[in-house]
Amino acid sequence: MQSLGEKFASIMARPGQDPAAKDDSPWWMKYAGRCLGTVGSVIAIFLGAWNCAGILLAQVSCFLGGLWQMVAGFLVISVEAPCCCLFIDFVQHGSEWVENRPYWQRAAAYCLLALPPIFLCPGIGTIFGSGLIFATGVIYGMMSIGKKASRDEMRSAVIADSQGISSNTKSNLVENAQPVGLSDRPDSNV
């Protein structure tokens, strides 16, 4: 019998995805990023269409911001939930390409995609719609940082640091350094 978490994982898994995790980010953070990206991009598309109605009031910057927000929402939903865009040929290929990239690149792309509409038309719809895309980028940024150390590892590092003992986390910074007296003299003929 499968647990609820395993059932949810099998529903949210991509076709052909390796069931073993390749990184150390928590499962709930992966699904939070995927769900927030999917729901947030749908909301961003609708709010972007609402901002595009600003052209009726001669607000060209809100029209451009709405278009940008709709395109950003489409790009995020095509990456996070390619099942929503089944009838567009290039979406599955593009989604797989983005999946193979590191999390920090996806975080940077989402955060950069979310900013221009806010600057073009700083309204509540733009801030909320693009803010959800930006929050998805923040979640992927936190995933790129990785899992923090266990409580015991952090405690031993603090104790070693307070006693002046070199801990393992800092000893590999300069591994091949030699004392100055053992290094060769520079050639003065050059």
SSE layout:
Elements: H1 4-12, H2 27-52, H3 60-80, H4 89-99, H5 103-120, H6 124-145, H7 151-162, H8 168-171
Helix pairs in contact: 2-3, 2-6, 3-5, 3-6, 5-6
Major sheet attributes: none
Mean pLDDT value? 79
Helix/strand/pairing category: mainly alpha
Beta-strand level of the residues, as a percent range?
under 5%
* Radius of gyration based on Cα positions: 24 Å
Number of helices: 8
Written as H for each helix and E for each strand, in order along the chain, the element string is HHHHHHHH
Explained architecture:
The model has no long low-confidence stretch (mean pLDDT 79). The protein has 190 residues and is mainly alpha-helical. Helix 2 (27-52) runs antiparallel to helix 6, helix 3 packs antiparallel against helix 5 (103-120) and helix 5 packs antiparallel against helix 6. It has 8 helices and no strands. It starts with a helix and ends in a 19-residue tail after the last helix. The relative contact order is 0.12. The radius of gyration is 24 Å and the shape is extended. The protein has helices spanning 4-12, 27-52, 60-80, 89-99, 103-120, 124-145, 151-162, 168-171.
